Amino acid sequence: MNLTLYIVALLIFTVSAALFSRWLAARINLTADARAEYAERVLTKPATIKGVDEAVFVKLYVGAHEPRWALYMPIALLTATLATPLAAIALTAFWPVFTSMLDGGPWYDVGYYPWMFYMFFGFCGLWALCAAIVARIHHARSPEAFQPALARARGEPLDDVVIRRARPKWAVRARPDPAPQSTPTPETKSATETE
After folding, report:
1. What is the pLDDT of residues 175-189, one digit of tens each?
2. Are 118 and 87 in contact (CB under 8 A)?
3. I want to staple 22 with a disulfide (CB 3.0 to 4.6 A). Which of 44, 70, 117, 178 is the partner?
4. Cα-Cα-Cα-Cα dihedral of 49, 53, 54, 60, to 10°?
5. Is-contact 69 26, C-beta < 8 A?
6. Where do the structural domains in the chain lie, given as residue ranges?
7. Distance between CA atoms of residues 17 and 6, nearest Å
8. Residue 144 or residue 175, greater confidence
């Protein structure tokens, strides 16, 4: 087998391990932060955690703030990597079936441009399918934002909870003009000149 394939597979496994380590380290740090936040809220703002124990608070806090992409990206990479040899076998086995429906010229032999085109886009389609499936799972399993989840854990109906949104930094300077000046367009300018 080609040494390049081994190097690429090793690189993918290394990147996947680094991303998984990033997710795990962030989760450990967020758990410690959540426990500290819970202890602070017990002392300073007990109404915000009324009826919520520490384990539930930590679960909600970590679930809302963890970098989930760092968990799902290695899953997508490893799925695509492990499915590639199986796809190569399936695509190679299907090539004679596909070319038997064509005129059967020598340009359809393995190694020529039609075969390379077929294999390239077959692999690209497989990798895109793996990414799409993992992205769909990532989206379907996305947790609720922290403040609504905490309000729901306190037993408050979510319709009664008002969540203030922070104003974007760029919007600080954006102020509407109380009396906008209308500039004449070429059509209105010519209409006023003719009158």
Report:
1. 666 666 666 666 655
2. no
3. 70
4. -70
5. no
6. 3-154
7. 16
8. 144
